[in-house]
């Protein structure tokens, strides 16, 4: 008698090496009787006219992951379907699994689908807790009674995971946060900025690029795609960051330049957000770099704050506020998104530079997102839902769990102050101080009113 199979559905942003659903299935049967389902959903891939480089990254990473699983002895059912639900139904019809395991998705709509799966498929379904985030392993505020601020959340995570603490459990250096040391503009000369590691597309990725280029709608071009698409690539990119950019990440974390998109940032969020890198492993390796004398404490603390503080807090806030967060508009802003957000055709040099960069690369670092894009949209009274959709469309690392609370909550302060304690708004003086964008700009960052005044000053 043939032993019935156990199915495992792995969504495309959960490309984990030891996926919990695979581990759960292994407690009931051997690999020869496990069927792993991955679905390329046309409905999901065309929901918005996404950045084409994001689609190349996601699809190529999924297809490489399927090869990795096959090499490990799994039977992989890789399907292209109209929707995730259609792919699941076709899989169950083909394999008749005894039961199906999956891990809770990071996004709200995915979990709604997962709650209906047993009825949809007519088979027992186990949805495991999401462990892709640290808050899925330890939630410092499972039932908050009062407002939770980022700094307190960050300290709770540091304490629990034992990061950058002394023998008494106190923060190394006598402070939890060295943000005041991480606000330097770039010097005009004398500082070499290393380029991040780039990866030449292999044959599989080249085929994905052709597939994505044929889609009717999308932002940017597939040409020039050079991100990593495997776990080995992602780990190599992380090693490169630790060796060449972590030491200067801290002091120049807030700097902006027309000459470099990445500066000393990690460019690792695209890999983290699809499961190719683990946040706790990254935090511990950064901590090791400090103890080995490879990077100063302020830089390492700043990086760890981004990983176990900001990123986890944003994910936590997403699940605290959904689904209402999608429609939050605390300031009642209703102006449409300006057309130049889709072309970069504006005389404001900072916006032109950042938007053009996003269209071309699908990337700008977090200060450009917050203090150029969101700052302008907040001051100009742009509809938060429109800004949120633009971010979701244009960035290679964009997923609803990270974009929506970061844009609507933190960047636009439209959630009633649940995410951030105050609006992140500033005049042109901030951009002039922290960047070289104002040099040669049509507008004067020193003038507050009149035809030559920088719009950031006028709006502020």
Verbal overview:
This protein is α/β, with parallel strands linked by helices and 460 residues long. The chain folds into three domains: 6-132, Rossmann fold (3-Layer(aba) Sandwich), CATH 3.40.50; 135-196 and 245-321, Serine Threonine Protein Phosphatase 5, Tetratricopeptide repeat; 326-459, DNA Cyclobutane Dipyrimidine Photolyase, subunit A, domain 3, CATH 1.10.579. 44% of the residues lie in helices and 6% in strands. It is built from 19 helices and five strands. It has a five-stranded parallel sheet with strand order 3-2-1-4-5, with helices on both faces. β1 (6-9), α1 and β2 (34-41) form a beta-alpha-beta unit. α12 packs antiparallel against α13. The chain is globular, with a radius of gyration of 23 Å. The protein starts with 5 loop residues before the first strand and ends with a helix. The model has no long low-confidence stretch (mean pLDDT 96).
Report the β-strand fraction as a percent range. Answer: 5-15%
Structural class: alpha/beta
Supply the number of structural domains: 3
Per the CATH scheme, the topology name of the largest domain is Serine Threonine Protein Phosphatase 5, Tetratricopeptide repeat
Q: Specify Rg, calculated over alpha carbons.
A: 23 Å
Provide the low-confidence segments as ranges.
none
**Total DSSP E strands:** 5
How many helices? The count is: 19
Straight-line distance between termini: 74 Å
CATH class of the largest domain: Mainly Alpha
Mean pLDDT across every amino acid position? 96
Outline, from the CA principal axes? globular
**Order of helical and strand elements:** EHEHHEHEHHEHHHHHHHHHHHHH
Q: Order of strands across the biggest sheet?
A: 3-2-1-4-5
The level of helicity is 40-55%
- Per CATH, the architecture of the largest domain is Alpha Horseshoe
Largest sheet: 5 strands, parallel
